[in-house]
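Catalogue entry: protein
Contents: sequence, fold tokens
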Amino acid sequence: MGALTFLIRIFASLALGLRSVARNKLRAGLTTLGITIGIAAVVTVTSLAQSARNAVTAQVSALGNNALLVFPRSSRSSGARDNVGSKLNELDGRALVRDSTSISAAAPFLRASAVVVYEGENANTSVIGTKLDYLTIRSWKVTSGEPWTTSAEGVGEKVVLIGKETAKQLFGSADPIGHEIRIGRFFYEVLGVLEEKGQSPFGQNQDEIVLMPINTMRSSIIRTRPGEVHGMLFNSTSAETTNRAKTQAEQILRDRHKIAEGEEDDFMVRSQAEFQKLQETIFGTLTLLLIGVATISLIVGGIGVMNIMLVSVTERTREIGIRMAIGAREADILTQFLLESLVLATLGGIFGTAFGLLAVTAFGKALGWEMRIDPSSLVIALGVSSGIGLLFGFLPARRAAKLDPIKALGRE
């Protein structure tokens, strides 16, 4: 019987709270606006952050299986950069595989930007000259056609593989296999089209690309010193040996480049995990910043709820006195105003969640991301808004409950 009485009192207090909100729709709407904005911001930011992390993870994974990159590092002498170019060469790549126990393959590469032309159509692309191991390390399949052969690689035949976007820009819906494209004054036969990769961790469209044998590129696109390369891609034998592969690569290259103990390396080795960690750090910082702004909005919204509830208590002092005179207890008054504050904050949470869902949908279409909202984040958002209602509504509710019935009845 006691539990039933308690439930009846709760529902009665809730009905009074809803009636009060319904009587002052405009005021209630303005009161919940801060919470609505805060909850919408939290829902949107958390969804964007998770989608961005998923996109970055996919981009880093697109580099290949257990892949690591070696870049040349510009040295400084007497405050000026030397201009001798990259100190990396193809023999370094062979040494990495030969002299290590944790590196399974290495692919040196040259790169340049170029305009590719086919029968009046042209496309700005990134041109990469490399070896067949580049495709293996990056797990990059040829969806139509076939890669060049080892012999073609050795003699530097003018053959290429092109990315999906490059193929679309040059050939539209036509099959590019067997046709010749022009880069500068040389023509190259298209052997195949690469599978779609999307954006790279460095912000480049990996599908706007032309791959060719490194000897071909050296003889027709850019001139370099014998064997010089712009970088190397290699992979470890397994995910567990990645750190060991990086350490071995650094030691092998230091020995080959005759770098004494204590001197700065003339190269940099970076792994997929490091790229992902860097991106995670950036997105994590931005997410915390945006959530901080949203939290301030929620606090402001909570203060607005408390302010309006204090005004409401003042306006309804006589009503409170009448309720007490006919038998309402302090707990009943406290519950009534707490529930009224809870209703205001929860309505703000519901509207904020709805606006957040709309914003996430709009951002997903604009950015081309697959954005999903974790149901648990919606529950948390509503829980936070309800908590704000209870927290900031307690002081007004306690003030109402502590009113003297006789003085309250004397108020006009």
Notes: The longest helix spans residues 272-315. Residues 75 and 264 are 8 Å apart (CA to CA).
